Amino acid sequence: MIDILDRRRDDIIKANKKDLELFDKSDRAMYDRLIVDDKKVDGMIKSVQEVMQQEDPVGKVKSEKNLDNGLKIQNKTAPFGTIMIIYESRPDVTIEAAVLAFKANNKILLKGGKEAIHSNIILEECWHQALEENNLDSDWIKLLHLNREETQAFLKKPTEKLDLIVPRGGERLIAFVKEHAQCAVLISGRGNNFLYVAKDANWEQSIKVILNAKTDKISACNALDKILVDTRIPEYENKIKELASILKDQGVSLVVDETIGQVLTTEAKIVEESLWYQEFLEMKCLIGAVASIEEAIAKINQYSGGHSATIMTQDQELAMEFMDQVDSAAVYHNASTRFTDGGQMGVGAELAISTDKLHHRGPLGLEQLVTNKYYVFGDGQIRV
Length: 384
What we know:
38% of the residues lie in helices and 21% in strands. By secondary structure, the chain is of the alpha/beta class. One of its GO terms (biological process) is L-proline biosynthetic process. It is an enzyme of class 1 (oxidoreductase).
């Protein structure tokens, strides 16, 4: 597969250009995710290399017991079977998701968005070529050519056994899958990530982290959307004005709550509460004020997507209180939310970032694409 991707990179980029030409460029975040260039193909190749070098996750003994009745019981990792992933825009998912599933002995059904159809078709061709060259069935990795209605019908009554569905996308996609799926669903939900600047935060460090988290890649699910500033921070008003000025200089539009609006009088105010729940995926940020860490934690747990949250503080105990109590898949102390990523966290290539709590939370890497089963060895034992 590595050789094929490298050999066919021009064909892959050419196919992607067809998708880009047909796409509405006004949706910048989705457009950014859709682009495949030489660097992106290199990233696909690297993903395959990384997974290839990882240890096989199947058949690992998780626990072992020898009972008084002579039974030997092992709990071992096992493949799920068939995984379906539903995703939008990103053709590199067609590589990363498939190589992870395949390495863990799972079949995978790829349901990409119509906006990436030309890119995904050629990437499926590459997979099938690699499988066939190794005398393997092409059904191990299959791209589904289904519209919305056909997808709904497939979820309600699959034409083959499905063991796990991973929807990667917005609230509507997740609700759609949960409504119609007949098997387990592992949610890769919205970002809507928060950063709390505590009263003792290193202000220069906070600005640096905020800028990275907000502006480094707006199309990523780990980008920053909401900033909460403690009103007890020294020179509160001056710092709020400085933060606003720096963000606006970087092209970030602002929305502010009532308290911040008393300082930033010309900025747009929050009109509807729903804005607190929204993942922006654009150069836009909401700044709110809180009077305590308890208020910050409560706000984050109420409105965030359960993805990533950061506290900026020099107080280790305060940081641990925040990290223990915030209900997110990844919690940070003095660091950017942009690190919530399989590669950055040492997991390697990822299928998705799970915001679910069963069976795993956070980056879904190779080790997370297995379930388990019990092996019980006996010698004629019967239960009495």
